[in-house]
Structure formats: C-alpha cells, structure tokens
Write the structure tokens for this entry.
Amino acid sequence: MEIFILGFFAIGYLVLAGADIGVGMALPYLGRSAGERREVIAAIAPFFLGNEVWLVATAGVLAGLFPRLEGELLHGNHTAVVTLLLAWVVRDMGLWLRGRVPGARWQAFWDGAIVAGSWGLALSWGALLAHVLLGIEGPVALLAALVLAALFATHGLTFAALRLRGGLRARAAVLAGEAGEGRTYALTSAALVVVAVLAGLRLPLEPGTSGPLLVPVILTLIPFLVAAQAWVWWTFRHRVSGPSYL
C-alpha cells in the first residue's frame, strides 16, 4: 500500500504541475507582449499552488514511509535537488511579483524569472530521473533531461490550448490542432505517467516501520485533497478571457 500511495502523489504532481511548468517554459512563445504574457499566466494562476501540494505530499510520504529512499535521493543528488528548489522559488516569485508593479522593466524581469524557473524545474526533474531513477549518467543523462523538458513543454502547450482563447489558443495548439487539444493533453499526461512508473520500477522501494501508523492517516486525507483539487478545476473550468488573477 505504501508504494501505491507514493506513486499516487508522485504521478499526480508530474501530470498536474507538469502543465504549469510547461506553460512557464513556453511563455516567450505564447505571449508576445506583456499583456499576452499576463493572460497566459492567468491560465495557470488558479492551479499552480494546488499542484505544488502534490509535491509537498510526495516529500512527506518519502520522509514518513520511505526514510531510506529519501536519504539516498537527497544525499546522492544534492546538486539536482538544490537546483530544483531554487528554480521552484524563482518561478513562484515571478508568478507572484510580476503584476505588483506596472513598470515594463519590472514585468519583463519577472517574466524572465518565470521562464528560467520553469526550465530549471523541468531540467532538474529530468536530471534527477536520469541519474537516479533511470540509472544513466553522462551525455545520455543530459539528453534524457532535455527529452523530459521537451515533454513538460509539450504538456504545457496542450494545457494552454485548453485554457486560452483566440490567437493565444491557436498559438498554443500548434502541436494539437484546433480539435485535438483534449486528446493531445491526454497523450502527454499518459507519457508522464509512463515516465513515473518506469522510474518507480528502478527505485529501491523498501517501506520503513511507520506504515501501520501513517498509512491510515494518509488514506483518510487523500479524498479531501482530491476533492479540493476537483473543486478548483471545476471553479476555473472556463477558458481565460483576460489578464485576471495574480
């Protein structure tokens, strides 16, 4: 049961947060002006904090149920983990601060932070998966990191196509076509699930001794997390019509 709980949160994070990471990566392509970039950011604004909860939950499950694995991941991949955390902070600072001051230079600076942080997140996850979870190093690991980053970007574009309107939607749907947004989003989501499952098969998944105490608590909390996520998605299900939120 512990393994399924870890997989549930890890896959949930990759699929949900992978979309807003990908949108951030593609921000210069999607938004050609400050107004367009703000509208693109509005497409992910209601979701990114909730999506990050899945990563926090994954880290909590690792610490509580798989302490040995947590130690190996953090100790053996210090650089990738630190880079990931820094990129996370930079990306979120950009999302929160770009709209606080109306100046063009201010907004352009934080737009750059969103893009850099999003690419940092994608490449850090790629490096982590390549070095530890997939067991490869060297140039092949760099190639794997770039491939995963491309997958995040594609996933983000398809999500943006589902959320945006008009010219922005057409720009985001460059890979999906006008009628294939949902299908393409399902395909990119499935690809991320496959990556997570293949990576999980390479992990030394040996649960600790706290499972009998923590598993019932986690299973009790999961329905509330899923319900909250579903409520957010339902509330903001309509396409973005302007530069709202944040």
Summary: The first helix runs from residue 2 to 25. The mean pLDDT is 87. DSSP finds eleven helices and no strands in the chain. Residues 73 and 132 are 7 Å apart (CA to CA).
